[in-house]
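Field notebook, page 429. I keep forgetting to write these up properly, so this time I am using the form the group agreed on. The chain and the ligand, glutamic acid, are recorded exactly as supplied. Prediction of the bound pose follows.
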Amino acid sequence: MANPMADEMRRFKGSDEKNPFEAMSERFDRAAQLLGLDEDLYRVMRVPSREIKVYIPVRMDTGHIEVFEGFRVQHNFARGPAKGGIRYAPDVSLDEVKALSAWMTWKCAVVNVPFGGGKGGIICNPQQMSLGELERMTRRYTAELIDFIGPDKDVPAPDMNTNEQTMAWIMDTFSMHARHTVTAVVTGKPVALGGSLGRREATGRGVLITVNEAIKRFGLTPDKTSVIVQGSGNVGGIGAQLMYDTGYKVMGISDVAGGIYNPNGLNIPHVLEYWAQNRSFDDYPDVEHVSNKDLLEIECDVLAPCATENQITSENADRIKCKILAEGANGPTTPKADKILHEKGIFVIPDILCNAGGVTVSYFEWVQDRMGYFWPEAQVNERLADKMIASFNELAHFAEKHNVDSRTAAYMLAIDRVAYDTRMRGIYA
Ligand code: GLU
């Protein structure tokens, strides 16, 4: 008998291990099959709701006009407004943004916050642009998307190479069009403009919280646990700092150019201060200097890739020597690598749980903006920990019940929740 789901899978199937949308789809397919997802729902949930492409003219400081290509993909609205960051990078592509938007849908469902998934990107080189150019580009991008974003429609946030300042510009541009201040249109804003205390640290804190839970499964305590972190930005840097403060031995850390390693542990506050001053680890003393590739292969208890996609592939998965893989980045592991890690018995805290601290506190920020009432930082952190620990345990329970690995369990849990809401809402026609 013909199997429509299998036909559909073949239609979409690609062969490029590093294509993020294919990586996402492969996991989605597997989880959907294991769940016995209804074929109609499968077809609806497998594709994004909307892909928007905009061309953004920007007057550069030299006086000429440059046109940048930008995207916003709104993957799913079944559980609430689309939610997700905007990244600025020379190599960002529609396929990447599509995958990231889907990951946001599953991430929000895993931690049970009432959002769908979205993601945006602009192809540009932010390191070579002035603040004024970045501001004009951000404002025009926002203006192009004005009908598609809003507190009840789609709520952007920071991602790679965007920050609180970027969010303040988006909020201001949107507010100028609305003729009144609309703080809840973005999250990750400056605290003074309706941002939430604890939001900046939230993704790194979420990594810490999930690692704290995972090490218990190995009978480890922080003081007996060694950690390697790839990345030193908002996720890796803050994650490393929080793990160091908790007593973990952080042995290695890196930036885009490469990393540093000391088997006796690094003084992370000093390392991060050094990086903030020098923007490089090149001359950092009394450590071994390693490439990003080699850093991943160092033996440790916890390996936390907190930078970008496709870091652990079929080429290097066999040489990964950690007990726990804490995916602070989105999509750092390819499906082919998943299989190898599983055979090696490595416990994976999947990205859609591990890095969900950011969007969880984004949800708190959105709630606070709409209430006009702001919470103390301790309350934000406590509610974040409650949500992440509950999700970690739910996921572990789901994995045991269905006898699947933690990544598959995360997708199954998320797809099950989105499927329920989609089924209840029905298809509008
Ligand atoms: N960019 C972050 C992520 O990938 C945060 C998204 C948000 O807070 O909406 O999860």
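OBSERVATIONS:
- The pocket of glutamic acid is lined by residues 83-85, 157, 159, 187, 330, 355, 358-359, 362 (CB under 6 Å).
- Confidence is low (pLDDT under 50) at residues 8-14.
FOLLOW-UP: compare against the apo run.
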